Amino acid sequence: MEFNITLLPGDGIGPEVVNEAVRVLDVISGKYKHSFNFQERLMGGCSIDKSGKSITDETLADCKASDAVLFGAVGGPKWDDPNAKDRPERGLLALRKGLGVFANLRPVKVHPALVDRSPLKPDRLTGVDILVLRELTGGLYFGQPKLREVKDGHERAVDTLEYYDYEIRRIVSLAFELAKGRRKKVTSVDKANVLESSRLWRQVATQIGKEHPDVELNHVLVDTASMKLVAAPASMDVVVTENMFGDILTDEASVLAGSMGLLPSASLGESGLRSGGEARMGLYEPIHGSAPDIAGSGIANPVGTILSAALMLRYSFELESEACVIETAVEQAIAEGARTTDLGGKLTTRQMTDEIIQRL
Ligand code: IPM
Ligand code: MG
Hints:
By secondary structure, the chain is α/β, with parallel strands linked by helices. It folds into 2 domains: 1-102 and 260-360, Isopropylmalate Dehydrogenase (3-Layer(aba) Sandwich), CATH 3.40.718.10; 119-257, Isopropylmalate Dehydrogenase (3-Layer(aba) Sandwich). It contains 12 helices and 12 strands. Strands 2-1-3-12-11-4-5-10-8-9 form a 10-stranded mixed β-sheet, sandwiched between helices. The longest helix is centred in the first third of the chain and has 19 residues, at 14-32.
């Protein structure tokens, strides 16, 4: 099969890790006789430097026209001025919104060989396998009004937490579908004791829960959820929540795995956009940032990006067995001692990828 992939390496370590994922995809395409056509575009600080914009209309159009987008990271001290006209992060938000990728899947698994890398006690980590679904195109990030003004002699700023029922329905429904292939437990996280948007969230989640009697549904307040994530993470299966809560909880959850450098993510739109099947437009990215402190030194962990490429094969291309081949190779490499510096080892970005490629 043939697929068109737009690469957005971005800033900092982004280009280093995207490059390694492409090497893995090239091996997969050779072995399984697919063609992956790559086109590279600018987004983030590098795009601001070139054109003054964190993402151009042409780049967004090119991403929309492709089968999937693989993204590295954006941002860095060079573009951190709070008064700047544009910021690298704005490009990412425009891309998510523009592609309509409302569901951000962030799987968090603890590899048994890496239990000692997490600050949590080993007995808490056994059996941790969580899939967080973060709503990605609504809530506080996008709600209107969003403004800064001077009112009654004071500076005032407003962000709006807004959700429509259909926005909640589509992501919670996906959470239930995904839970069916797992341990059949959905934890819906909200702040329904305080927020109106959360009361609507809970109401919609409850309705959808009734349509799926084979899946257990729990509602947990976000403050309690943040505690449970470190106190009893193995009890969680699929967690579904609004945009900002999901942003915060997934950074917390990444600590369980021992390094942010290990974790992939997939951001999906409506299904059936491609080929009438279950395949979806997707944006794939590691959950780590641009890590300006180590950029250019060739020591970044490529695993999060390589596993993101595996998710791309699974969700956008429906190549499940090829996705599993990559995931198994990563697991084996780690089990057999392959470690980048964030994992306490000495391998460079390229050497870590070589270890994975040898096991494909
Ligand atoms: C993430 C990041 C982004 C977000 C930033 C870079 C805008 O923290 O993907 O979690 O807040 O969504
Ligand atoms: Mg974040």
